[in-house]
Design brief:
124 residues; single chain; 3-stranded antiparallel beta sheet; alpha+beta
Amino acid sequence: MSPKKIHFHKKSQQLELAFADGVTNQLSAEFLRVHSPSAEVRGHGKGQETLQVGKQDVQILNMEATGNYALKIVFSDGHDSALFDWTYLHKLCAEKDQYWQAYLDKLEEAGANRGGSFINAKPV
């Protein structure tokens, strides 16, 4: 299901999406970057995910529709290989709070923070 509304708020770096079933939300550039469906983030199978750190200030430089099924988003950190299909964007909008909390939990577990620092890093 494609969104009935797509609006990018450049100043706040928020992608606003609204779907016909009433699901609507605003997703930040950071949120989208750390939840990219690319192999760089997801890996090539279960357990191969790479935790994204230091993406707090990432920005969306460009986005374009890919066919009638997805958005290709180009981020300021050079990441440009992800296609966010409508089904995945709908899921991100519907479950934003759960996705965000899971990300924050993974950061904490890794001893990292959103800015990219590792809190529990020991000097070498």
